[in-house]
Amino acid sequence: MDNDQCILPLINIVFLLLIFFMLAGKLIADGPFEVTLPVSKQAANQDIAENIVLIGKDGQLALNNVIMDETTFKVALAAVAGNGKNIGAHFRVRADTQLDATALIIILEWMRDAGISKIHLVTLNDPP
């Protein structure tokens, strides 16, 4: 057997590993726009929420990766929450770190008005 044939299985394995990591490397889907999360010092429960709200630094809104204006967002929140009847609905809010705090509070009030009570704010963990 010549040297080129001896190295072929190694090359095959390397390419298979490359393909595997390319496919498995993206476990969480990105949203429709970029959100830079704030940092927190407290570790939180990382259970998967059913619904994800994205809020961009300019106040851009998305619910479950669908970009919406304010009116559509409020209607969609009420529909997903079942006007307060779907008490088991969990929402994970990913707000940009540069978003004005008053804008975040207004959006959280919209969620409360839609009957949503289980809201989790997503932050990056800052290890000690």
From the 3D structure, determine the CATH topology of the domain at 39-125.
Nucleotidyltransferase, domain 5
Number of strands: 7
The radius of gyration computed from the alpha-carbon positions, rounded to a whole number of angstroms, is: 21 Å
Measured between the Cα atoms of the first and last residue, the distance is: 56 Å
How many helices in DSSP terms?
3
In short:
The protein is α/β, with parallel strands linked by helices and 128 residues long.
Question: How does this model look, in words?
Answer:
- The chain has 128 residues and is an alpha/beta fold.
- The chain has a domain at 39-125: Nucleotidyltransferase, domain 5.
- Helices cover 37% and strands 20% of the residues.
- It contains 3 helices and 7 strands.
- The protein has helices spanning 3-24, 70-81, 101-113; strands at 39-40, 51-55, 61-63, 66-68, 90-95, 118-121, 124-125.
- It has a 5-stranded mixed sheet, with helices on one face.
- Strand 2 and strand 3 (61-63) form a beta hairpin.
- The protein is elongated and about 75 Å long.
- It starts with a helix and ends with a strand.
- 14% of the residues are buried.
Topology of helices and strands:
Elements: H1 3-24, E1 39-40, E2 51-55, E3 61-63, E4 66-68, H2 70-81, E5 90-95, H3 101-113, E6 118-121, E7 124-125
Parallel strand pairs: 1-7, 2-5, 5-6
Antiparallel strand pairs: 2-3, 3-4
